[in-house]
Design goal:
Length: 424
């Protein structure tokens, strides 16, 4: 008689887990087999369509190493026109894009309170002028009175001295008493002291006159300056172009109120433009100040290519792009204006003689990669190539290719498993 076999808990766990594990193993074996079959079926020679492919021939010659970027013309001299006082926009006489001459009206503002204040400042100044004239007349009269007193004192002193001299002669002849002689001498001394006192008073009057006039003139100058400032603010209500230029921004509308210091418009001086281009980070390592460059205005004409030099390089990269400023040396054509799209080319170096070819897609300077070299009109093979320095459109070859070789410069990243490619 067979007895039922009792399984332990560990044996039961292994039995339950063995089935899913075996199933997973079978699935992995099946997937691996399919991948192996697919890899075996991958042909060493791939057939592709020749339509849309680009070819280039390896050549030897000079290579100009340059970098290019696109950007815009930027005004080098910007002038913000600000409001000198609180006002309301009365009339606009220009719009964004308008070209103005120095002194031309840009807009007209209105501020009745400022006009009234300027009138009151003028009245105060005129009143102070009248008060200064009256004060000067009064002080002149006081000085003249003091001068008259000095003249009287001088006359009295001279008269007393003459009397004393006469009494001296009379005293010798006994015709005048000694007391009368002493009185004459006392009169001389008294007249001299009076003269000195009157002269001192005259000097004080003159000094007081000068001090009061200086104080009044200072107050008058302060009032005149305040009036002139108010006049300048009134004249500033007629907003004029500070120099020849093109209006860049003007967003105000008639009736709009502005505060003192508010920006009214932005002007760019006509003809003072430079090019600001953006260069890819990988191409900007060798850019330096003073390098020669060419700015293309995209006109298609010869006058649209302008000589320039690198004037500024941004200190950091933003979004894999580096900003470079180009100072334009040639005169700008008439159609050049701010924010005009341009292309810039910066000459980094020049190799007098090297093996070179048109840059294949995704090729990098000073790197080793593979390209497809044409063996015949319809067959290409993959070869390893060591690239050297590169410009925007061409790249130097250090090894792997010879002069006269033709290569495919189109995107061949989808052919990476094929050693040979047949074109149809």
């Amino acid at each position: 008689m067979d007895l039922p076999r009792t399984l332990t808990s560990r044996q039961r766990w292994w039995r339950l887990a063995a089935r899913p594990a075996l199933g997973l193993l079978l699935v992995l074996l099946l997937v691996g087999g399919l991948l192996a079959l697919r890899l075996r079926a991958e042909p060493a020679e791939l057939t592709v369509s020749a339509r849309g492919l680009n070819f280039a021939q390896v050549e030897r010659g000079p290579l100009a190493l340059d970098v290019r970027g696109s950007g815009v013309l930027v005004p080098s001299e910007l002038r913000w026109v600000a409001a000198q006082s609180e006002a309301r926009v009365e009339k606009l006489l220009a719009q964004a894009g308008s070209q103005l001459k120095q002194g031309e009206l840009l807009m007209v503002l209105n501020n009745p309170q400022l006009l009234q204040r300027a009138q009151e400042s003028r009245w105060q100044w005129e009143q102070a002028q009248a008060e200064l004239q009256a004060l000067q007349a009064s002080l002149d009269s006081q000085v003249m009175s003091a001068q008259a007193a000095v003249q009287r004192a001088e006359f009295n002193a001279r008269s007393a001295e003459l009397q004393w001299q006469a009494d001296q002669e009379l005293l010798k002849d006994g015709m005048v008493s000694k007391l009368a002689f002493q009185r004459s001498r006392f009169s001389v001394e008294q007249a001299g002291q009076t003269l000195q006192l009157e002269r001192a008073l005259l000097q004080q009057h003159r000094a007081a006159k000068q001090a009061q006039l200086d104080a009044k003139r200072a107050a008058l100058a302060r009032l005149h300056k305040a009036w002139q400032r108010d006049l300048e603010l009134v004249e500033a209500l007629q907003v004029r172009a500070p120099e020849d230029g093109v209006v860049q921004e003007l967003t105000l509308q008639p009736g709009q109120s502005v505060t003192a210091g508010a920006l009214l418009a932005k002007l760019a001086r006509a003809g003072a433009l430079y090019a600001e281009i953006q260069v890819q980070e990988a191409q900007a390592r060798d850019i330096a100040l003073g390098q020669e460059a060419v700015v293309d205005l995209r006109t298609g004409n010869r006058d649209g290519a302008l000589r320039a030099v690198v004037s500024r390089v941004a200190p950091k990269v933003s979004n894999s792009l580096l900003k470079v400023d180009l100072r334009i040396l040639d005169p700008l054509p008439q159609g050049a204006r701010p924010d005009l799209s341009v292309d810039g080319s910066i000459a980094l170096n020049r190799i007098s003689d090297t093996l070179q070819v048109q840059r294949p897609v995704f090729s990098q300077a000073l790197s080793q990669t593979s390209v497809y070299r044409m063996l015949s009109e319809d067959l290409a093979e993959r070869v390893s190539v060591q690239f050297g320095p590169a410009s925007i459109s061409r790249i130097a070859i250090q090894s792997g290719l010879r002069p006269g070789d033709r290569i495919i410069v189109s995107d061949t990243s989808t052919w990476r498993l094929a050693e040979r490619v047949r074109l149809r």
